[in-house]
From TrEMBL, chain A:
CDD domains: SirA_YedF_YeeD (cd00291). Keywords: Transferase. One of its GO terms (molecular function) is transferase activity. InterPro entries: TusA-like, TusA-like_sf. Pfam families: TusA. Belongs to the sulfur carrier protein TusA family. This is TusA-related sulfurtransferase. Residues 10-77 form the UPF0033 domain. It comes from the Archaea.
UniProtKB/TrEMBL annotation, chain B:
One of its GO terms (molecular function) is oxidoreductase activity. InterPro entries: FAD/NAD-bd_sf, FAD/NAD-binding_dom, SQRD. It comes from the Archaea. This is Sulfide:quinone oxidoreductase. Residues 3-148, 200-295 form the FAD/NAD(P)-binding domain. PANTHER family: FAD-DEPENDENT PYRIDINE NUCLEOTIDE-DISULPHIDE OXIDOREDUCTASE, PTHR43755. It comes from Halopiger aswanensis. Pfam families: Pyr_redox_2.
């Protein structure tokens, strides 16, 4: 089993327009412990670049971005 | 009797009540329809006025008028607080009444609320211009502020009037220049994501102007905590920024009424973005800031949404199928200083075009602010 098969927290930001998904993620990450694996679900293409940039800025790890049929799953680990 | 209940006396609720009074005047006169507006505040408040209060251009009294002066006499006005929405029984409970009100169609227009206490130290350490008390305190502070670091920090997204955070540093820059104080004041602007604004075209426009006017831009800046004694802002990203005068756009929240009614988990009503009908209940609409739609929380949005919902409700009251839809139309003026402004207009998924700021657009904005009271009456 990999981290992405069973995230600890899933944030459903589908249909939220930019910067909604990133703001949903930032609001949630503040409350999580180090080591928590998060899946952010987004239909906003910009999130696939904005979110990794923010993770680098804030010092969290991008695990994987997976393209689904009609949304993206962005997996990350909180540091 | 077909009962239409509107909760909230801001722009959305007031425009809607007046539009319905006009559209359904025959049905109301015949006693077949009732339009009731329920609001806890006996005053209607035009919040964009508060942006001008810190600069001494307006007073907080300029922002309000008794709502009974603005509402059509055919509207039944109830000054009271709605404490519970029962969407199964189509009933509202009121704070000061033992009886409840039944509705056939309900519109929630309860707006957004400021929540500075959501961030430690923010309420004590920061000023804001999003309410009467905050705007007056900032006016007094600014009047005596002669040197140091002024920081405008966008802490909460989404927030009311998405243009205002960009407008404030441009206005204060100009205002300080006029008073010969600008060279002794450093100005910074912070925004949570990797650009100066959620809308890319506005971000690009503001970034160029900030550079031109020596306003420092800090991005990916999410405030975690404010230390009012040390006068330092700390971020989630691990950065610190010292300030002498902190002006913040506080976090906003929806309404407990919405959460308790099961209409939206975070206090904003989940709605269909085109029909503005609640997704979790029948016969319920939401307009204005409380409606969770993918555009800005702006007065123009509430205004256009009110027009759409008035048409839909009137159609249903007449037994017709509603056809009016909201396309996300949003119009915002943006002040670029104390005497020039631009404006933007866009719909869902559309990127606005930002025109070159000009003095005529500034005076158009001030003119609109005065004629707003005609908008509230449903005349514009």
């Amino acid at each position: 089993m990999t981290d992405t098969d069973d995230p600890d927290v899933t944030i459903d930001s589908k249909d939220a327009s930019c910067p909604g998904p990133l703001m949903d993620l930032i609001g949630k990450v503040k409350t999580l412990d180090a080591g928590t694996v998060v899946e952010l679900q987004t239909t906003e293409r910009n999130s696939t670049t904005d979110v990794p940039e923010w993770l680098e800025e804030a010092g969290h790890d991008l695990v994987e971005i997976e393209e689904r049929d009609d949304y993206w799953s962005i997996y990350l680990e909180v540091n | 009797m077909h009962r239409i209940a509107i909760v909230g006396g801001g722009t959305g609720g007031t425009v809607l009540a007046n539009r319905l009074a006009s559209e359904l005047q025959t049905e109301i006169a015949d006693g077949n329809v009732e339009v009731r507006l329920i609001t806890a505040d006996p005053n209607h408040v035009y919040k964009p006025t508060f942006l001008y209060v810190p600069f001494g251009k307006k007073t907080v009294d300029d922002a309000k008028r008794p709502i009974e002066e603005l509402v059509d006499r055919r509207v039944t006005l109830t000054i009271d607080e709605v404490t519970d929405v029962d969407t199964d029984q189509n009933r509202l409970s009121l704070a000061d009444r033992t009886t409840s009100l039944r509705y056939d169609q309900l519109v929630l227009a309860t707006g957004a609320n400021l929540e500075p206490e959501a961030v430690p130290g923010l309420a004590e350490g920061a000023h804001h211009f999003y309410g009467p008390d905050g705007a007056e305190r900032l006016r007094d502070e600014l009047a005596d502020f002669t040197e140091g670091h002024l920081v405008l920090s966008v802490v909460g997204v989404p927030h009311m009037c998405p243009a205002a955070p960009v407008e404030f540093p441009l206005m204060v820059d100009d205002w300080l220049r006029e008073r010969g104080r600008r060279e002794d004041v450093e100005i910074s602007y912070t925004y949570p994501i990797n650009r100066a604004h959620g809308l890319e075209s506005v971000a690009d426009w503001a970034t160029d102007l900030f550079e031109e006017r020596d306003i420092t831009l800090e991005t990916f800046f999410n405030v975690d905590e404010v230390d009012p004694d040390a006068e330092v802002v700390e971020t989630v990203e691990g950065t610190e920024l010292e300030y002498d005068l902190l002006v913040a756009i506080p976090p906003h929240r929806g309404s407990d009424l919405v959460i308790d009614a099961g209409l939206g988990e975070d206090g904003w009503v989940d709605v269909d973005r085109h029909t503005l009908e609640a997704t979790a209940a029948e016969d319920v609409y939401a307009i204005g800031d409380v409606a969770d739609v993918p555009t800005s929380k702006a007065g123009s949005v509430a205004h256009y949404e009110a027009g759409v919902v008035a048409d839909r409700i009137a159609s249903r009251a007449r037994g017709q199928t509603p056809t009016a839809i909201y396309d996300g139309k949003t119009v915002c003026f943006l002040e670029a200083g104390m005497d020039e402004a631009t404006f933007i207009e866009f719909t869902y998924g559309e990127e606005p075009y930002v025109r070159e700021p000009s003095k005529p657009l500034h005076w158009t904005k001030l003119g609109y602010n005065e004629s707003y009271w005609l908008t509230a009456r449903g005349l514009l």
